[in-house]
Amino acid sequence: MLIVGAKGFAKEVLEVLYQNEYKKDIVFYDDVNIDVCGKLYGKYKILKNEIEVKDFFLKNGPEFTIGIGGPVLRNELYNRFSNLGGDFTSVISLKSDIGHFNSSIGKGCIITSGVIVTNDVKINNGSIVNLNSTIGHDTIIGRFVEICPNANISGRCIINDMVFIGTSATVLPDIKIGKNSIIGAGSVVTKDVPDNVLVVGVPAKIVKYL
C-alpha cells in the first residue's frame, strides 16, 4: 500500500497497518519535504515523484491511503492519486469497535485505535476518525470529514462534507453541522451549525465566517 505523506499522521497510519499485520509492501510518498528521503525507519521506501507511484501501483497493486490531515487537502490528494491509477483504500484498526448492525464505512477512511462507532452509522469516503473518538447511533458522517482525538459525536447527528471537528469536542444529539465548517477543540455544540463557519466554546458559538 502507498501511504501519501511521510510525517505526522502518516506514521499513525503505519502503526495501524502494523498492528493489523498487513502483509503487503508499504511505501510512503512525499514530494514536498526535502529532508524526507530514503527509507522511513530504515525500512519503508519514500517515493518522490509520480513515475515512481505509477511503477509501484503496477508492480504491487493500486491500494493507497492518505496519511495527511485537513479535509480540503485530503480531497485534492484523493483526486490526484486516483488519476494516477490508485484505489482509495480504508485503514481500520482492529482495536476499534465498529457496530455490527447497519453501519458502513466508505472508501479511503482511516479509523484508528480506541474509536467506537455504534449501529446505524454511515461514514462516507475519505473521512478520518482519530484516537478514542465516538460516533453514536443513526449518525451520518460526510465525505472527507476529520474527527480529531477524543471527540464525541452523539446520536442522530448529520456531519456534512469537509467538516473538521477538533480534539475533545462534543456534538450533542440531533445536531446538523454544515459543509466546510470547523468545530474548535474542546467545544460543545448544542445547536445546528451552518456551512463555512468556525465555532468555538462551551456552548459553541460562531466566531468567524470562512
- Strands in their spatial order, largest beta sheet: 7-10-13-16-19-22-24-25
- Main CATH class of the largest domain: Mainly Beta
How many structural domains? 2
Structural class: alpha/beta
Write the H/E string, N to C: EHEEEHEHEEEEEEEEEEEEEEEEEEEE
Distance between the termini: 35 Å
Total DSSP helices: 3
Profile the largest sheet.
8 strands, mixed
Estimated share of beta-strand residues: 25-35%
Low-confidence stretches: none
| Rg from Cα | 17 Å
Instruction: Output the CATH topology of the largest domain.
Output: UDP N-Acetylglucosamine Acyltransferase, domain 1
Q: Architecture of the largest domain in CATH? A: 3 Solenoid
- How much helicity do the residues have? 10-25%
Task: Specify the overall morphology.
Answer: globular
Question: What is the count of β-strands?
Answer: 25
- The CATH superfamily of the largest domain bears the name Hexapeptide repeat proteins
Chart the SSEs and their pairings:
Layout: E1 2-4, H1 9-19, E2 27-29, E3 39-40, E4 44-47, H2 50-60, E5 63-66, H3 71-83, E6 87-88, E7 91-92, E8 97-98, E9 104-105, E10 110-111, E11 116-117, E12 122-123, E13 128-129, E14 134-135, E15 140-141, E16 146-147, E17 152-153, E18 158-159, E19 164-165, E20 170-171, E21 176-177, E22 182-183, E23 188-189, E24 197-200, E25 205-209
Parallel strand pairs: 1-2, 1-5, 2-4, 5-6, 7-10, 8-11, 9-12, 10-13, 11-14, 12-15, 13-16, 14-17, 15-18, 16-19, 17-20, 18-21, 19-22, 20-23, 22-24
Antiparallel strand pairs: 3-4, 24-25
What does this structure look like?
By secondary structure, the chain is an alpha/beta fold. It has two domains: 2-89, Rossmann fold, CATH 3.40.50; 92-201, Hexapeptide repeat proteins (UDP N-Acetylglucosamine Acyltransferase, domain 1, 3 Solenoid). Helices cover 17% and strands 29% of the residues. It has three helices and 25 strands. An eight-stranded mixed β-sheet has the order 7-10-13-16-19-22-24-25, covered by helices on one side. A six-stranded mixed β-sheet has the order 3-4-2-1-5-6, sandwiched between helices. It is globular.
